[in-house]
Amino acid sequence: MKTDARGEIDGPDVIDPDPGAPKVQRLKTFRLRNFFKTLGPGLITGASDDDPSGIGTYSQAGAQLGYGIGWTMLLTFPLMTAIQEISGRVGRVTGHGIAGNVCRHYSGKLLGAIVVLLFTANTINIAADLAAMGDATRLLIGGHPLLYVVGYGAISVIAQIFFDYRRYVAVLKWLTLCLFAYVAALAVAKVDWSQALTGVLLPRISWSVDYLTTIVAIFGTTISPYLFFWQASQEAEEERIDPDKKPLTKSPRDARSEFQRIRADTVIGMAFSNLIALAIMTTAAATLHAAGKTDIQTSAQAAEALKPIAGPFAEWIFALGIVGTGLLAIPVLAGSAAYAVGEGRRWPVGLARKPKEAAAFYGVLALAGALGIAINFAPINPISALYWSAVINGVLAVPVMVLLMIMVGRRAIMKQFVVRGWLYWLGWLSTAAMAVSVVAMLIGYFV
């Protein structure tokens, strides 16, 4: 019987207790619950990509441009999958996240600039997501949105600090199911499926400023630096929660099975993310664009605008999805900022640690959440803040991706697990696509 390095059965095999008896082949029973348990950082990362601010971007894209923008999801899927898998490999191979590797092999000033920009962008994004969640809850049950902002922000931070890590990750995974609200919203919309399919498979590119700006916004939403940091750090967290696991540089026999797990987890997570984003775009195209409502700025506005067109049910499930995705995304935003700062300073980090074991790490996490709440009480336009968050994310993504691709090609960092072949070149293609998007964004801003 074939076994892996940990003595576990590697795939279907033959059970043969009695050599003289007839051979009976037993396949491992597939259980959806067990399969769901094997998913982790990739699924949570992909789902958190569809945060309330991202929902606003996708709704705006569908409302403004109709079905013709769906092709962007087909394009971004392999690009974001490649860069996220590479991020996951860095964490699992080295036992450190991206910031932890940068501080060990590159300039401290470079790391400082990256961490400051990441913390700033994540904090603004937390503020925008909390604002959207507050507005969505107001639509559902009334009340003052700022009260909900404080409540959701406090719940997210407290849960990360005081919940048992395994249970908390399980909660995050179950929260990904809230994204099916947008499949339900799509089901009640009157979609022209021939046009929707054409929009996915046949790009119709317009060289107008609005069209190019929307594409840049979509790229900036789907390929974001905080996702790289989160997935790498969560893979590095594996050795802290499972004493039998070590960085693959110290346990190379586990590499094949671990890389297969990371790939499956990432592909499923990114596919889920893009399918939900496409459902949001298609719903907005079939309802808001078809009705001439193209001036949509936030996810809450999209939910409110759906009511007279698709009915109160569509508004309700759209708004409920905003709250659910926010509860998933805020921990990822705050957590990735804390990992970046903590690893860069070589502090004890990790959500699997008790608060007293990683006080500084949890302090940064709480600070990001508190500042996100506070921004909502400041005289700052949340839409403008979100725009500048997207600008910072776009500008930050390119050097981080370049640095990431250089790291995974260095034997001094990755040892025998340097990334090569099609994954390596697809990672560089993703980096180039992001660079083109940022240049287009800057040209559109200054010209």
TrEMBL record:
Annotated keywords: Membrane, Symport, Transmembrane, Transmembrane helix, Transport
Region of interest (Disordered), residue spans: 1-20
UniProt keyword annotation of Transmembrane helix present: yes
Pfam family membership, one: Nramp
Stretches that traverse the bilayer: 110-133, 145-163, 170-191, 211-230, 266-288, 316-339, 359-380, 386-409, 421-446
Leader sequence segment: none
InterPro entries referenced in this protein's UniProt entry, alphabetically: NRAMP_fam
Protein topology in the membrane: Multi-pass membrane protein
Subcellular location: Membrane
Protein name, per record: Nramp family divalent metal transporter
Lineage of producing organism: Bacteria, Pseudomonadati, Pseudomonadota, Alphaproteobacteria, Hyphomicrobiales
